[in-house]
Amino acid sequence: MESVELNNKTDVNVEQRTQPSLPYDPAYDPLKSPTPGVGRDYAPTYWIGTAGEPPEDDGPVQGNIDADVVIVGSGFTGLTAAIFLAQNYGIKATVLEANRTSWGCSTRNGGQAQCATGRLKRSQWIDRYGLKTAHKLHQECLDGMETFKELIKDIDCEPQPGGHLYIAHRDKQMPILEKEAKLLRETFNYDARIMDAETVKRDWFGDQEAAGAMHEPEGIGIHAGKLAFGYHRKARALGVKIHPASPVQGWETHDGVHYLRTPGGVVKARAVGMATGGYTSQSLHPQLKNRLLPILSNSIVTRKLTDDEVKACNMHTRQVITDTRILRHYYRLLPDNRLQIGSRSAIAGRDAPQSKYKEMLVGDMHRKFPLLQGIELDYSWWGWVDVSHDMMPRIFQADPKETIYYALGYGGNGVMYSAQAGKRLAQLIAGDKTGMDMPIFESQLPFPNVKEVVESQVFAPFRRFGQSFLYRWYAFKDERP
User: Fold this and answer.
1) Model pLDDT for residues 169-226, shown as the tens digit of each residue
2) Which pLDDT band holds residue 327 (cuts at 50, 70, 90)?
3) In this structure, what are the phi and psi dihedrals at residue 398, rounded to the nearest 5 degrees?
4) How many other C-beta atoms can be found within 10 angstroms of the C-beta atom of residue 16?
5) 479 vs 19, which has greater pLDDT?
6) 136 has pLDDT over 90
7) How many Å apart are CA 146 and CA 89, to the nearest integer?
8) Spatial distance between the Cα atoms of 227 and 244, rounded to a whole number of angstroms
9) Helices marked H in 11-110 — which ranges?
């Protein structure tokens, strides 16, 4: 990228809804494509199909812009970071989005806000970090739930509160859940409770695979599209500029100032926060190359169930539910009586449109709910999840000499934690590190080391080959008695 002289053109608040200039790309792959696109349309998700019109935005970047802070990515994290920068520090950020607002993870997830950060359990935190740090991380999750609840209280995102039901999909999982629940109660003072299979199927949710379950008190289901659009409106009301169809296609830093090239002009920024989730391209910035393993997750949503069908399936709760598979399922009964369920998908983007992945998920649904054999589907989609190589997120400034920050790596638990991560990202950008003495704020996203290669990941150049092997191994472990 060549150095650019800015003309000091100021941005103008334009009331408009930027329309897509390109269709949805079902085969997009962040490891293969240099950018997520320019103005591509949304994936055909339930959330987009039922959220209403996207909110007004500030149009694509046109000409050169001077900004104090640029946030790259207009999903949950980017928008909440912009909200907290404005609310808490008086900084009005400029948000750059490659396609349409919240086009990536934020409108393709399962809508499950759980009291978690990353993929590790509390017992694994203790093993990795020690008890003192594990307590801090637990409190960070509790604080994150409060941050999330406060943010959504004036957003009509169809919240379904009450907790999280963690279903043992095999008998062998029950001792593990019982041990974890005991730890949560006695060590973290967190009221996790164990239920037997009969109680789960009769009184909670008629998942025919259930061998029992652990219930934890924190968990909220939300409408992801309405939440994303609500964050968007909240940010713009605070003076945040949101520019769709404006991917960062080039990046130079001179004398501590960043020059971000978009199709419509260059944005000059004194600080940049990256919040691109599973749609982080390899070419966005050298600090992030090969530091995430993007994986695909599939979701389906049925037609509306009748009251009799809901009753026959013993669906007595609308709380968020996951099972204990490594390749886990997440599911719940939506407010309009549709069943939503998601799990693993293809490994490479080019394979994602193949019907076999939807058929696999439909088969999983039938095993759990045999009475739903043959039920029509209203929605089917897939999306990328940002998994870090040690299964924990990072909100971090990689180089103290550069004003570049990122919040990434939620591993499928970003619906809630993205709100707290946005708050923490805003803190870092504003120079406020209060309460951030934890590993997820003090170290960068790691490259995979030998231990992680063996346990869960693969060395970056061979990640897809290794992922294919691991999926087969995980499926074997998940399904054996």
Assistant:
1) 999 999 999 999 999 999 999 999 999 999 999 999 999 999 999 999 999 999 999 9
2) confident
3) -65, -35
4) 10
5) 19
6) yes
7) 20
8) 18
9) 46-50, 76-89
pLDDT of residue 464: 72
At 431, is the secondary structure helix, strand, or coil?
A: coil
Neighbour count for residue 330 (Cβ, 10 Å):
21
Alpha-carbon dihedral 186, 192, 196, 202, rounded to 10 degrees: 160
Locate the domains of the chain by residue range: 159-220+294-386
Long-range contacts (CB closer than 8 Å, 24 or more residues apart) made by 136-143: 136/437, 136/438, 137/438, 137/440, 138/188, 138/190, 140/420, 140/438, 140/440, 141/115, 141/116, 141/117, 141/218, 141/417, 142/115, 142/218, 143/420
- Quick one: pLDDT at residue 14? 52
The token pair at 461 is 């150049």
- The single-letter DSSP state of residue 36 is S
Any idea which fold 159-220+294-386 has? D-Amino Acid Oxidase; Chain A, domain 2 (3.30.9)
User: Both tokens of residue 168?
Assistant: 């043992």
**Residue 173 DSSP code:** G
Beta bridge mates, 268: 66, 259
| Residue 449 CB coordination number (10 Å) | 13
- Residue 219 region, left (φ>0) first, then alpha (ψ -120 to 50), else beta? left
What's the CA gap between 322 and 300, in Å, rounded?
A: 15
* Those residues with Cβ within 8 angstroms of residue 363's Cβ, 6 or more apart along the chain or in another chain: none
Burial of residue 363 (CB within 10 Å: 0-12, 13-18, 19+) is: exposed
At 11-67, the pLDDT tens digits run 444 568 999 999 999 999 999 998 899 999 999 999 999 999 999 999 999 999 999
